[in-house]
Design goal:
The chain is mainly alpha-helical. The protein is 66% helix and 8% strand. The protein is built from 5 helices and 2 strands, in the order αβααααβ. The two termini are 19 Å apart.
């Protein structure tokens, strides 16, 4: 059985996987670095971020048109909904990166080496 390290930010892959499966540790990655890290993964991992970003960008002119030609509140509602979808896509990206790191030791080591993964001990 792997020995846990004193500093959780220097956790090895084997220790992390063992503790993660037992529920003793969790990990995460901030959304901003996740936008850049997702480009290192296979293309299908980045689809949620791409779709969420394009949907949000295209919602701006559609929201303006809806406000002008339908009702003012419909454009605001449309913009709020698409902004929530974009935020959800960013959060989903961070989770996809973590899932990929759990299954790929080399990628996990790259994330730890660059201090992109944040470990939390569950007690």
């Amino acid at each position: 059985m792997p020995k846990p390290l004193n500093n959780p930010n220097e956790m090895s892959y084997e220790v992390f996987i063992d503790n993660y499966r037992r529920g003793k540790v969790s990990a995460g990655i901030d959304r901003l670095p996740a936008q850049w890290v997702i480009r290192l993964l296979p293309m299908h991992y980045g689809i949620p971020l791409i779709l969420g970003s394009w949907l949000w960008i295209l919602s701006i002119p559609v929201a303006i048109c809806a406000s002008i030609f339908y009702d003012w509140w419909s454009g605001i509602l449309l913009f709020i909904v698409t902004s929530a979808i974009r935020a959800f896509a960013k959060e989903w990206n961070a989770q996809l990166i973590l899932d990929y790191a759990i299954h790929n030791k080399d990628f996990f080591d790259i994330l730890v080496e660059n201090r992109l993964l944040v470990f939390r001990l569950n007690e």
